[in-house]
Known about the structure:
By secondary structure, the chain is an alpha+beta fold. The chain contains 7 helices and 12 strands.
Amino acid sequence: MTGMDDSGQIKAEKWTEIELLPEWDEQFYDVYTAKKHGKWVMLKTLKPAYKDDPRFRAMIEKEFDVRYNLAHPNIVMINDFEDVPTLGRCIITDDVYGDSLRKLISQGKVTKDHLDKICTQLVDAINYIQQNHLVHFPIRPETIIFTENIGNLKLIDVGFDQSEHLTPSEATEDICSFGKVLAEVVGQVPDAPGYLKRIADKCMSDDPRSRFKSVHQLRMALAHRSDNKFYIAIIVFLLAMIALLVWLTSAWAPHV
């Protein structure tokens, strides 16, 4: 659709091709794809039931404030916050054209490459969220998108508030959410390594104290390493250096 500007010249409509994406809906938000000045973007706006509630209007404004300055390759970036015709106030994000992990699971299209990116890119995104103390809803297959063609992982719905400190409880809840995602994906990949199922089970333990205590510990496990082996290697190296020093200062050392 076009119109006339003040000089009488034909101008292009700012917003076009607005389309609801039901599979990407979040708990309180509807998600749309659209073109802004001809460029594809994503729109995130309150569901009709919440639009007139001051509490939820404050929530979407807070989410914009919290996420606007975030920058991570595996998190969908926010660009603007403005009124869109027929939709009302919307958070404007980068366009992420692709499929949700939930869709890939339901269609039986999960591959080893998706599993690898869950174990690397998703963990990186979770670590960034925790470093910035973002308060967010649980990470789910519905909030994980794999872009078309390249297949990069992008996380949506990553934070609606920011706290001063990350509590141990919040850290282990993220790890539990990761474990649930990992368990679903492992179940879709026939040749998935057996240790990944054990990692998923540990992440999902009913007793939070039995889960991985940090993203660092989770990374070490996914890399099939442990802090203990690392520390043992350091101790062995130091002992070898001490033994060499003692020998060089002893009577048996060669004299030059």
